[in-house]
Amino acid sequence: MRLRAVAEAEYGVAVAVRYPVTAYAAASALGMTTRAVVEGLYAGRTGLVPAAFEMPPSAAAHRADTVLATALGALPDTLAPLPASLRARGYDSRIARMAALLCEPLQGPLGRAVARYGASRVAIVVASSTAGLAETEAAYGVHRSEGRLPADYSFDRSHAFHALVDVLRVLTGARGPGFVVSTACASGNKVFGSARRLLAAGLADAVLVGGIDTLCHTTLRGFHGLGILSTQPCRPFARDRAGLSIGEGGALLLLERSADAQVQLCGVGEGSDAYHMTQPSPEGAGAARAMRAALHEAELDPNDLDHVNAHGTGTQLNDAAEARAIHSVLGSTVPVVSTKGATGHVLGAAAALEAVFAIAAIERNELPPTLHCEPPDPELRLRIVRSALALPVKHVLSNAFAFGGSNACVVFGAAS
Amino acid sequence: MSLPVFVLGVGAWPGPAGAAGDSAAAAKPQAQLLTARMRGRASLLTALFADVALQATRAAGLAPRELPSIFGSAYGEMGTLQSLIHQLYHGDGALSPARFQASVHNTAAGQLSIALGNEHFSTSLAAGRDTVAMVLLEAFGWLEHNPGSVLVACADEGASEVLQPGIHYGPLAAACVLSNQPGLAVRARLGSLCSAHAVEPPAQVSCNPCLPALTLVQAVLSGRETTLDLNPGSPCTYSLSVQPVSAEAR
Question: Distance, in angstroms, between B230 CA and closest chain A CA?
Fold first, then answer.
């Protein structure tokens, strides 16, 4: 209760409302369906494979260093083409095709939400950091060699953030407010904060939330340039962790004002490190504030939490700072998992994907394993779950921290 | 939404009366809120955000480090992103770490929070022609449950010659400090955002997507009651009423 009193003073009045998560879908390196992703995670499979990420051919001709050796979490199968109605309007892109893949299993629940509330009361709030950057990289290569962009490329429909919202509107029938949250790797948690505000303020009755990101050269080369891209599948919280692995995919989830559902969104905590663009504050102070704020909004105490799905990227600095934050807020006994050894870091969509994992833990009363964590770093003083663990799970905290010091933590809970 | 929303201060670049092509447009945005080291490296977009954030918070009489903030940009760090892609094709294989970390959509939010020591909530949104409307919607949602003020800022760089051929518009930024508590600095009161579903979105955005934010600033400064169309041509049209608040009513 002491924490609650401190948080009350620090964060103001909690919005003590819980919103049911009535449907969700995920795709990642573990599989193209939610079932394949979740079952693969609990089976201890990894979708990360050593890979040589080649430059576009038009660039390779001018470059000696054309292949980047790393481990990638690419989707395992080819994406189906978009519906003709979208392609005819120039919306074809990898991220749009992923959006279609994720929308397909949600058609029933989304249709019911649109019918129940009205299309203009169903909002779309999704996360992305790359948007259609992969398409622009390729188009730029064509421009460089031919002096013009490809005929089927349009920045507004192939790349821009709002193209993702446009595509989701067409695919779902939702016509309410729609925007992309892009705060780098915290985006996928911040969408839950935005959705919660829309619902609490009566600005929407249902919100399709989530995030999608795709592999592209710029992010891979960029993280490589920062010296934090692992050449092997990432090893979150391991003593010898050597950086992150990039993946792709994401998740979409449907939040509603009221409905029967097994799991609810309980609280969101958001804040800023105010420390460094790419490094966390060493003591994890900003992360700890966001975790406390999420607990406060959920009206929970630290000992109410059964599990933490950590940001856990596998870099030395990130994992150390997050461990200190978890330790300072929750102590050393709460079971902690990083799922990035299975999926890779899906950047702006990572937390959306991990929200599905948090929900699955509650639905199954079972925690997934943290892969490649042998031996764990003893200095982190965390209880890292290294093989699937059955136990009662009522409340889960899911963390996401980002470039720019953007922090966002979300609490999900079992409907009582 | 039930609470009234007041405008405490505004800022714009180029100046509130301006548009691209004005003499004011020749002046570089002032990024005084950033540290000297950050200023030297700041992108145009980040400098635009810093400039209008300072104007709006100064007009509101509030310290920028004390405010939560909501940033909107339809396209984000376009110039930085384009230079990175150029490096992919022309460079030696590695991208500039400084440019890469400044390519994220929340670069301005991050740099301003670091420079100011601002640990409060901030977020960065994009919604094409709806960007200004969605930033205001996010602000209204924030104010509904958080007593106090919030900085909202919208900015986009000019159209890219390479990636947006045939499109011509200049850079633009505007900011407001909004509050759910009236005070001495109140300049206007905003009505609810009204939406009407309309038409197919245009294939491309042909003017600066943040232009409605400048229109809002101009409306506040004009002291006249008006209703603004926040995203003409967008599939979902949002309108907003602006009512001046007289000194006696403050």
Answer: 13
- Give pairs for A385-390: CB < 8 Å, separation 24+: A385/A335, A385/A336, A385/A337, A387/A44, A388/A42, A388/A44, A389/A335, A390/A365, A390/A366
The residue range of the domain holding A327 is: 2-414
CATH class of B5-249: alpha beta
Please provide the DSSP assignment of A81-134 as one string: PPPHHHHTTT---HHHHHHHHHHGGGHHHHHHHHHHH-GGGEEEEEE-SSTTHH
Q: What is the pLDDT of residues B176-199, one digit of tens each?
A: 999 998 776 788 888 877 776 555
Q: Which among A179, A226, A272 has the least Cβ separation from residue B126?
A: A179
The single-letter DSSP state of residue A156 is I
CA A361 to each of CA A237, A307, A344: distance values in angstroms, whole numbers, following the listed order: 20, 9, 19
What is the mean predicted confidence (pLDDT) over A36-51? 97
* Chain B nearest C-alpha distance from A145 (Å): 11
Parse chain B into domains and list their residue ranges.
5-249
Bridge partner list, A413: A264, A395
Full DSSP string of B139-155:
HHHHHHHS-SEEEEEEE
CA within 13 Å, CB half, B112? 34
Among A103, A159, A185, A266, the active-site one is A185
Q: Do A129 and B105 touch (CB under 8 A)?
A: yes
Instruction: Please report the ipTM that was assigned to this predicted complex.
Output: 0.94
Residue A144: its chain B contacts at CB < 8 A? 89
> Which CATH number belongs to the domain containing residue A389 in this structure?
3.40.47.10
Give pLDDT tens digits for A345-358: 999 999 999 999 99
**DSSP reduced 3-state for B1:** coil
DSSP A309-356: E----S-HHHHHHHHHHHHHHH-S-SEEE--HHHH-B-GGGHHHHHHH
Residue with tokens 């390479």: B162
B94:A90 CB<8 A: no
Range in A13-22, A34-43, A385-394 with the lowest mean pLDDT:
A13-22
Residue B37 to residue A280: CA distance in whole angstroms: 20
CB contact under 8 A, B145 and A175: no
A162 is catalytic: no
* Segment holding A292, helix H or strand E: helix A285-297
Query: What backbone torsions phi and psi does residue B195 show, to the nearest 5 degrees?
Result: -120, 150
Which positions ≥6 away from B184 have C-beta within 8 Å?
B61, B250
Count of domains observed in chain A = 1
Residue A278 has pLDDT above 70, yes or no: yes
Quote the tokens at residue A209: 């939330």
Any A CB within 8 A of B166 CB: no
User: Model-level pTM greater than 0.90?
Assistant: yes
Please answer yes or no on whether A278 and B236 come within 8 Å at the CB atom. no
Min Cα distance B100 → chain A (Å) is 6
- Catalytic residue status for A372: no
